[in-house]
Known about the structure:
Blueprint lengths: L1 H12 L10 E8 L4 E8 L2 E2 L1 H10 L13 H12 L7 E5 L4 H6 L14 E5 L5 H15 L1 E7 L3 E7 L1 E5 L4
Parallel strand pairs: 1-4, 6-8
Antiparallel strand pairs: 1-2, 2-3, 4-5, 5-7, 6-7
Amino acid sequence: MARRRALLAAAIAAPAVARAQGQTRFVWLRNAVGEDLAIGYRAGERHDPAAMARLRHLLRDWQANEEGPMPPLLVDMLSVLQEGWEYRHPIEVVSGYRNAERNAQIEGAAAASLHIIGSAADFRVPALPLDFVAAAAWRISNRLGFMGIGLYREFVHLDIGPRRLWTRLPAG
C-alpha cells in the first residue's frame, strides 16, 4: 500500500503543467441520469469531505438511489486520466457504485465486482474514441503498477484493483 501511495503521489506531482504545492485537483464527471459535477476535490494530500460527499452521490447506484463507499483513490485516478486531455471533456460515468442485488442482475458482471465496494467506474468520454481512452488508462496503470482496465463496446472500465487488461468487444 505504501508503494501504491508513493506511485500515486509521483503521478499526481508530475503533470504536464507544473503545479504549486497544495494546488487544488479537479475532476469533471457526469452520471447516467445527466447530473454534472465539475469540482475541486483535493488540495495537496487532503481530500475535501464536502466535495467527496458530492462525488459519492454522483457515483451512486442511481437505479436504487443508494450511495456506497468511494475510495478517494478512484477519484484520483479519474482525475489523473482526465488531466491528460486538460479537463476539456467530462467523464460520463455509466456505472460507479452498484449494490450487490443490482450487480447480480447485470449479465456478465463478476460476483465479486469492484463496483460493489465502490472501487470501479464504467465510463466514456463522448469527444474521444473508447480505444484512445482505454489506452491512456492502461499507460497510467503500467506506470503505477495497479488498476484494472477493460474495453467494452460502449464504455471503458477502470478499477483500482490489481493491474490487468481485458476487452469485451463483439467479434466482427
